[in-house]
Design a protein that fits this description.
Layout lengths: L3 E11 L2 H12 L2 E7 L5 E6 L6 E6 L17 E8 L14
Parallel strand pairs: 1-4
Antiparallel strand pairs: 1-5, 2-3, 3-4
Length: 99
């Protein structure tokens, strides 16, 4: 069984990806890897923390069904998290990607 070696990716749903990215860059010194946002602000900003290599994807889904309400722990807000493993090939032959 592979051992978890750390968190490598964190995907978060946010109201404003540009504003959130600026906050993470200022707080953690993160670098922008890619920014794919349309004119309405829908899309993703991918950030990387230079020391650990942690990737944070800030995902914005404005529009019907998502009116930008304040955060509530009673609603889903975490898209997904990926864990690093010591032996990635041993995870069911999926190269570390088990689903």
């Amino acid at each position: 069984m592979p051992a978890i070696s750390g968190l490598i990716f964190l995907g978060l749903s946010v109201r404003d990806a540009r504003r959130s990215a600026a906050w993470y860059r200022e707080l953690f010194g993160m670098d922008t890897v890619r920014e794919r946002l349309d004119e309405a602000g829908r899309g993703e900003v991918l950030l990387r923390e230079p020391t650990s290599g942690l990737l944070i994807g800030l995902l914005a889904h404005p529009g019907p069904g998502n009116e930008g309400e304040p955060f509530s722990e009673f609603r889903t807000g975490l898209d997904h998290a990926e864990l690093g493993v010591i032996e990635p090939r041993s995870a069911g032959g999926m190269g570390g990607m088990a689903g």
